[in-house]
Amino acid sequence: MGMSKNMNGYIKICNNKYLNYTCLILIVTSVLIIIYSLNTTNGAEYSRTLSSLILLQFLSFFAGSFLGFLFGFPSHNNNQFLEKYQRNSSLKEITSWLTKIIVGITLIEFKDIFHYLKYIIYHLSNSLSNDDSHTVIIAAIIGTYFILGFIVFFILSVTTIFEELVVNDKNIEAILTSEAMNPNEVYIDNADSVNSHLNSDFSKMKPQEKQEILKYVAKNGVDKMEPLMTKRLAKFLYAMEEYELAAKAYENAYIKDNNEKISLLNACYIKSKLLKDFDNSNKKLRDLINVDPSFAPAYYNLACNYNREYLEFKDAIKTDYIKTLKSKAEDNLTKAFKLDKGLYSEAKKDEALAGIDIEVIFAKSKDQNNS
Asked: What superkingdom heads the lineage (predicted)?
């Protein structure tokens, strides 16, 4: 049991596959270096050869790691933080300068680099012994571990380190925007002030007023207003590209007033078109059709959803479900035309129905009506 717990603890620590692969390569090559070092005449020479090769191994790895860190170090933008406080960008600037310098020197001295590298390898080989095989092993160690170090730390820089910086940025932003850091900032706690903004022209709103709306939503949600104001809130959130909140607001407007069917259609459009939540959007539309089977726009939007999903995945996924999406779109569009022929002109210019023969579907709907 104790051994099992220790192993579980070890596995949790070493959960990065790149580090695991690196450790595996390090162990294998270290064993090979030990075996190679046994080809010596006495213990003193063995110790000197083995320690020298292992030090060269780590030096090459750390040299490559340093370059990988420089090339992969995430950049950040101070403009997102409040002007009063700025992140120290020295490391970002240093890595940028060093990267440009290294690339520039490499391009200019490309031929000479191999000459210097060859000189270093022969010099190290002669310092160990006159055995020519040392040249091969030293070149292999330098090349393998330099490249390995570069790749591993480049990947870690653009994944793990980047993830840590993103989390840190969110924490910093939360601190800087908190009431303790901004005691003079006005916080909107009531709907009256927000209502006045929602009744204004969005294109003429100041950035501060838009932020007040977002702060109100963050604190109170999108379900505290009357249906009309909830619908206007959804429109403003959509204009601010807060699509998930906009969809929730439109859906809440319908929940509060079942006559607001267009609001539900807007929510379904946002979920399908912008959030790619096809299943949820389709379910809402099918539920609406069950409540009101004569509501033509619901069939039309469901047809758009099915065809939009078909266009999204037809080249990437080949399944029976994907193949039936287009026929479902055509069936629902036919039902929409049967209930409201005025949707024909809208369908002709709707990109969501690309690939569907609108003329044929419209003619089919007329034939079904006549029959």
From this structure: Bacteria
Please state whether the predicted TM-score (pTM) of the whole model is above 0.85. Answer: no
Question: What's the pLDDT tens digit per position in 324-345?
Answer: 888 899 999 999 989 988 888 8
Sign of CA dihedral 192, 194, 198, 199: positive
Number of structural domains, the chain? 3
Among 264, 266, 191, 260, smallest CA distance to 224 is for 191
Q: Identify whether the C-beta of residue 297 lies closer than 8 Å to the C-beta of residue 336.
A: yes
Does the residue 247 lie in any domain? yes
- Whether 164 and 290 share a structural domain: no
Q: Alpha-carbon distance 129 to 35, whole Å?
A: 17
Q: From CA 327, how far away is CA 321, in angstroms rounded?
A: 11
232 assigned to some structural domain: yes
Q: Of 102-116, 180-194, 289-303, where does mean pLDDT reach its minimum?
A: 180-194
- Same domain for 203 and 282, yes or no, is no
Domain span at 233: 186-268
pLDDT in tens, 208-229: 777 777 777 777 777 777 777 7
CA–CA separation, 325 and 319 (whole Å): 10
> Which residues, 6+ apart, have CB-to-CB distance to 355 below 8 Å?
307, 310, 311, 326
Same domain, 149 and 114: yes
Nearest CA among 89, 92, 58, 54 for reference residue 73: 92
Residues 149 and 10 in one domain: yes
